[in-house]
Every structure is written in C-alpha cells, then in structure tokens.
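Can anyone check this?
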Amino acid sequence: MTEPAKPGILDRLRARYGWFDHAMRAQERYKDSKGDFYAAGITYFTVFALFPLLMVGFAIAGFVLASQPDLLAEIEDKIKSAVSGDFAEQLVKLMESAIDSRTSVGIIGLATAAWAGLGWMANLREALTQMWGLMRHEPPGFLRTKLSDLTAIVGFFVAIVVTIALTALGSSGVMKRILELVGLQDVPGVSLALRVASLLVSILVSWLLFIWVIARLPREKVTFRSAMRAALLAAVAFEIFKQVGSIYLRAVVTGPAGATFGPVLGLMVFAYITARLILFATAWAATSAENLAEEPVEPPAPAQITVRVREHEGLGVRGALTAAVVGALGALGFSRLRRH
C-alpha cells in the first residue's frame, strides 16, 4: 500500500484560513481570465484617449479666450514678460493660430475621444465580464452594443464627477475652513482628526465608485451586494496606492528627465495598477462563497465498440497437401506396426 501524498504548504494554508483560500481562488480566476492582458488593454486606451481629451481642452480654452479679449491680452503680456526675444512672438502666434482653429481641433478631438473612449469602455466591460465568469447571451448587435457602451461612458463620467465633488467636500482644506468658521481650529489634535476624516471620506467615495464599476459595468448585470466587500477591499488598496504614488511622483519629477517623462510614466503606471486592482477585486467578488456555482459535470464520451471479425476460409491448398502427407505417413507407420 502506498501512502497518500502529504498536502503542500499552500494546501494546508488554504484549508486553515478561509480568507487565504478566497484570495487564491480570486488569483486563479484572475489568471485564467487573462487579467493582465485586459489590464494592459485598458492602460493602452487610457493613455490613447488622453491626447484627444487634451485637444478638446485646448478647444474649450480657445473658445473662452476668444470671447474674453482682455484675458487673452493679459496672457500674451505674461508670455512676453516671461520669454524674451523672437521666441515669445512665436509662442503668441502659435496660441493665436490655435485659437483660430479651435472649432476644427474641437471636432477632431471629440471624434477621436469618442472612438478611443468606446474602445476603452468595451475593453473594460469585457474584462469585468470575464472576471465574473458570466455566460453571455446572444450579442445584441454592433449598433446596440456601441450605444450601450456610450451610455456606460456617460454614467461613468457622471460617477467620476460626483466622486471628485464628494472628495473635494471631504478634503482637509474644506474641513479646516469649516472648523475655522466654527472656531475649533485651535483644538488639540484637530489636525490629526482632519487627516483621518479626509482619509475615511476618500475611502468611502472610492468604495461607492468601485461598487458601481464592479456591479454595473459588466455586460451581464450582477447584484450590488455581491460587489460591496470586494469594492471595499479595492477602495482601501487604492487609497494606499495613491499615497505611495504621490510620494513616487514627488521623487521622480525633481530632475529634468523626470519632469518630461515622469507624468506620462506615472499615468501609465497609475492606469495599469488601477485596472489590475479593479479586475482582481471583481475576481474576488466572483469567487466569494455566495457566488460560487456548481459547475456541471460533463457526461463521458460515448463508448465506441469495435467488433473484430476473423474469417476462416478452410485449409486451403497448402493445408490440404500438408494434411495428406501427414495422413500418408501415419498410415504407413500404422501398417508397419501391424506387420511386426
């Protein structure tokens, strides 16, 4: 009798700690669903959509400056005072040409941003659907899918605006002004309390946003209850990542190379880590105990019975000759035995 193999250290930890087993299930779902591949695609479309958004921003600034000539003259004076020589004149002419072409720049920027945004949203929704392991029904069609993605983009930006507004209201600066109005700014420990309150508000706002992303952006709807704990995990991890990222950016942008490439690299790293975080949190929600469904066991393949038929055609010529020779020898031997 051979003894059964002893379980490894990971198997023992999974059997002992439920949270560790859940984390391993989530990691397996993330890996099997190609989470890194989708995170890279989301990062690409995020960076790609940045440039048309900048074009739209320049176009909006051009409309604002064209309607306010006094502000435009003030900006030109500041450029000439900060930069001397012909370079200042070139900058002013470049700004004026950009303002003159604000309509075409805005239209091209909007069209490109819409195209890049639809690709970004389609990649994100497909990734979230894969993390949930949902079986998609028949596709609704190209036009209906794009309209659904466009609606999801509008909802996402509304959620982002609400998130930014709530974060601004819960920032330490706003809370400090409120305390100054009340007259409690000199209370001992109020500074630490403001930081903790600001941090908690930021986590709360991120939690609400991640709940909406995890539960409503997949192409097959899931319940908010399934996404609440996973969204809280993502919100806490996201806040830690923001604090570490801010320290990293302050250290990187000090040099000339960092000032040039640091923001772009920082944006790519931020988008990639955030995408991985959201996808892993979705995999965590999908592999929780209440969402695990029993996988149907496939029936065995049908048995194939092969009948072997062997045909006996008789002795044949060679067999008949052999039998005749053996019979003759036997008869000859038998006759000699009788004579003796």
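Reply from J.R.: I decoded it. The mean pLDDT is 76.
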